[in-house]
Amino acid sequence: MTTTPAPTRAETEAMIAEVLGQYPTKAAKFRTKHIKANDPEGSKECEVKSNIKSRPGVMTIRGCSYAGSKGVVWGPVKDLVTISHGPVGCGQYSWATRRNYAHGHLGVNNFTAMQITTDFQEKDIVFGGDAKLETVLDEIVELFPLAKGVSIQSECPIGLIGDDIEAVAKKSAKKHDIPVIPVRCEGFRGVSQSLGHHIANDAVRDHVLGTGGGTFEQTDYDVALIGDYNIGGDAWASRRILEEMGLRVIAQWSGDGTLNEMKSTHLSKLNLIHCYRSMNYICTTMEERFGTPWTEFNFFGPSKIISSMRKIAEFFDDEIKAKTEAAIARYQVRFDEITKAFRPRLEGKRVMLAIGGLRPRHTIGAYEDLGMEVVGTGYEFAHKDDYTRTYSMLKEGTLLYDDPNSFELEEFAKHLKPDLMGAGVKEKYVFHKMGIPFRQMHSWDYSGPYHGVDGFAVFARDMDIAINSPAWDLLEAPWSKAGEVA
Amino acid sequence: MTTTPEHASAVPLRVLDHNDIFRDEVYEKQFEGKREFEDAAPKEEVQRVLDWTRGWEYREKNFAREGLTVNPAKACQPLGAVLAALGFEGTMPLVHGSQGCVAYFRSHFARHFKEPVPAASTSMTEDAAVFGGINNLVEAMENITALYKPKHIAVSTTCMAEVIGEDLFAYIGAAREQEVISQDFPVSYAHTPSFVGSHITGYDVMLKGILEMLAKSPDADASKVEKSDKVRLNVIPGFDTYVGNHREYRRILELMGVDPLILGDHSSSLDSPADGEYFLYPGGTPLAEGALAKFSRASLLLQESTLRRTAEYIQKDWKQDTIVLETPLGVKGTDAFLTAVAKVAEVEVPAELTAERGRLVDAITDSHAYVHGKRVAIAGDPDLVIALTRFVLELGMIPVHVVSTNADPTFKARMEKVLSASKFGAEATVWPEKDLWHLRSLVFTEPVDVLIGSMQLKYISREANVPLVRVGFPIFDRHHLHRFPIIGYTGGLHLLTQLVNTILDEMDRNAPDHSFDAVR
Question: Is A343 touching B (CB cutoff 8 A)?
Fold first, then answer.
């Protein structure tokens, strides 16, 4: 397999300068700070700035605070009714699109793939929406009697018209004797989804955490699976590993999760966090309030799965360590089978990524296990601590971009000519037109799971499907080659 | 083990994904074990509540709702504004307000069209909520111009901008004064508050904004109209997510010897070739042509509820024949359309179209026995629902539940006119402003044989075990339906094919062995 040699830092910097040269001065000045050639040592001059406002008009790929709270953190909790509080759109566009799988009957004991909204009209804006919210809460309790509670996800107007959703929530919670959780995740707050995650975590802290428990006997092996949204069944595949290590998962946050699990998570002996970005806040809170230790792990691909399993086992006794080693030995057979099948077909292929949360760094190892190389990566809504976790995972000179927009992704792809692009649905079809194989890495392109041992097989298969499809050979018409008739 | 090796080298290992993997016993046990921590309701209790939600008592409670909306079949105004903008050449839709909205619009359309959807946001945040977003809009114009080089920017608003009362007209003026765009750079705008109307309203006001801007532009000069023997007619499809429809309108009018000008033609911008190169603006109504639209013989508007403001504007300002028709679906719908075109353009309907009509009628006679008397529920945008209802009545189907979440006050009367014209329409009940949770109750209490509507009806379809014929928007879960027309006689044939084959598939699926017929 031949690969293009990795660019040097200077070469990458020259490419960045060329792309940014097309910006107006003001925007170029801002964007320069967000795009760097990697230094694995994480030197100051290569530091990527992050968590700063997107420039207007650049076609950012970012979403909003509501998306971070409703779409990511709260929406997947299956036995809560999640109200999209405000006009109809936000809930409509985020209805069932994130693929947070959950067991239960929709509208009866599972309210995930539903669009439940106060559907604000002009009069609600003019006179305020509190009365309507109160009515809606009454109606939810009547129509969805098995709902364990309600979360109110604020859309932009709520914070602008001065509604007091906290008062309504409190009154309604008392009246119906269920938790009613007001969340101030209006879309204009903050610069991306990220503040929405934080606000959502804070709402869990203030209204849910530590309020329950005792519905089951505790053991020394109780852990919580945090920051796994069960996209395409991810959390189930991860949970399988943890259970085979001898651990007992008492709570899933928040994919296929329930209110009771969140209420009793403080009983966990160790919190295991996959998506650091969206749920580090609650882990820190539990550490401070209940002394619960927490650790990050990575269940993408054999190398990271094995090292993460050993890292987690270190927190427990020899029995768990022995079970972990036995599980690793079993998994190794399966990993070998998968890499033997797919690696020869993917070896040397170069990947560009632009994703949210944890994936711009967490999937690097899985690609490497298949012989692939990440030549450009970046986050939609990362903070500094995400980048400090990333530098050392990449070669010197690898392109890093924060909050990359449509223009930049297209330009960098033209320069880097990746064999595979991994980003979201907004980006997908641009790269299809360009003839660059693409996988949606938010929704797993309607596939999955990608976590765990079972997920790695699907991941490898899907990358193979994308890269080795015969469709890419069809783009050019025989008569259009070099402008000549064949 | 969950996989078996495969010999074919193109598929080196057969891998099971979420569809199958979780059926494994290991997972079955995991799911059962997890219940301990869920404090889940007993299974019998879940079943009891489930049964209750499907009954008449629940239906009454469900219809008594005053505030709650569950699974509505409508979206918000700026979504429609973005679609209107994408129907014009070189146009960048710019939505003024919070940036998350634009991420949602782009994703929503990308999932339906399977195409890139350019649209920019002014990315207003908390400070802009306090001080106003003028700087955001000006910088957005500057960045868009530099990076995306549009020929026209179409500005709409999110609810955030509307709540704080942003003045688009003044801000666009400021962008010109600050020279981030030139004095004559085309910018159109529309205020599109999400808390008024729905996506179809946003389409209407943005289209009107664009047409007004074009009609006042220097290109709107009668001397620029090319001399032609053919009569030029404006065709305005409305919020029509079938790119095949746009092409079909053009084909039909050209066959009739008319020169069609489709206003809001996204058939190229949202259905571009994959050939190795990406074009940001692959099509749309040419701006220079749009500017001449007021000199056309007439305008045909094909969505009455959607295009109300545009129709008023054209009638008042362009002073041309403004012909508002029901969307031409099926035989009679298309007949009415062709008749109107022939009359206003003073042309004949050519033999070719008459033959197409005959082929559609022929196909209907072939299929009529299988669709006759089938009970249907229809949901979607008001104009589409009316046209679909008329079509199913032609087929001898029985509309039972007709739901339109974003129906306007004229909907019920228009619907009743269509229903009363056929004896197959007598059973129908019409439900303006109801949502798909209402429809769920209707379908469980008064069952139907077929559902017609967007992919959002798939939950009811599965739960009530009623097949869904996907028509309308959005359709995320089936591919390419929107690339074929549903209007005109050819479109009627596509719709009929979808309908009858869905019914036949269902018949085969449920047939006892002896009735599993080789010929239908």
Answer: no
Model confidence pLDDT, tens digit, residues B146-173: 999 999 999 999 999 999 999 999 999 9
Measured CA to CA, the distance from residue B275 to residue A347 in angstroms comes to 26
Collect all residues of chain A within an 8 Å Cβ-Cβ radius of residue B37.
Answer: 215-216, 249-251, 258, 260-261, 264
Of A79, A132, A477, the CB nearest to B67: A132
Return d(Cα A327, Cα A245) in angstroms, integer: 7
Please identify which of the residues A64, A102, A203, A235 carries the catalytic annotation: A64
* Cβ distance of A22 and B147 shorter than 8 Å: yes
Q: Does A191 touch chain B (CB under 8 A)?
A: yes
Cα separation of B448 and B375, whole Å? 5
Q: At a CB cut-off of 8 Å and minimum separation 6, what does B347 contact?
A: B231, B256, B257, B258, B341
Nearest-5° Cα angle at B146, B141 to B149 = 85
Nearest-CA distance B431 → chain A (Å):
17
Which pairs with CB-CB distance under 8 Å and at least 24 residues apart come from B279-286? B279/A433, B280/B116, B280/B118, B280/B148, B281/B89, B281/B90, B281/B91, B281/B118, B281/B150, B281/B151, B283/B89, B284/B86, B284/B87, B284/B88, B284/B89, B284/B90, B284/B91, B285/B87, B285/B88, B285/B89, B285/B261, B286/B89
Phi, psi (rounded to 5 degrees) for A272: -105, 120
Residues of A with CB below 8 A from B144's CB? 57
Whole-angstrom distance, CA of residue A262 vs CA of residue B148: 46
CA distance B148 to chain A (A): 8
Phi, psi of B152 (to 5 degrees): -165, 140
Residues in B touching A403 (Cβ below 8 Å):
none
Sheet hosting strand A399-402, strand order edge to edge = A35-37, A399-402, A373-379, A350-353, A420-423, A438-440
Question: How far is B490 from B469, CA to CA, in rounded Å?
Answer: 18
Taking only the tens place, the pLDDT of each residue in A229-288 is: 999 999 999 999 999 999 999 999 999 999 999 999 999 999 999 999 999 999 999 999
pLDDT tens across B342-353, in order? 999 999 999 999
Matching residue, tokens 């299956």: A78
Separation between Cα atoms, residue A167 and residue A175, nearest integer Å: 12
E strands of B342-417, at which residues?
Answer: 375-379, 398-404
Q: Which residues of B touch A191 (CB under 8 A)?
A: 125
CB contact under 8 A, A93 and B98: no
Phi, psi of B379 (to 5 degrees): -140, 150
Taking CB atoms and an 8 Å cut-off, how many pairs form between chains A and B? 347
Cα B224 to Cα B263, B290, B408, B435, distances in angstroms? 18, 12, 39, 48
Report the complex ipTM. 0.97
Which contacts qualify for B27-36: CB closer than 8 Å, 24 or more apart? B27/A236, B27/A240, B30/A236, B30/A239, B30/A240, B30/A243, B31/A103, B31/A236, B33/A243, B34/A239, B34/A249, B34/A252, B34/A256, B36/A215, B36/A216
Residue B166's contacts (CB-CB under 8 Å, 6 or more residues apart) are B96, B97, B132, B133, B157
Give the H/E segment covering residue A422.
strand A420-423
- Contact list in A for residue B71 (CB cut-off 8 A) is 95, 114-116
Candidates A226, A216, A218, A221; CA nearest to A260 is: A216
Of B39, B117, B129, the CB nearest to A188: B129
From the list A88, A190, A212, which residue is nearest B194 (CB)? A88
Q: Which two three-digit tokens encode residue B118?
A: 């350019």
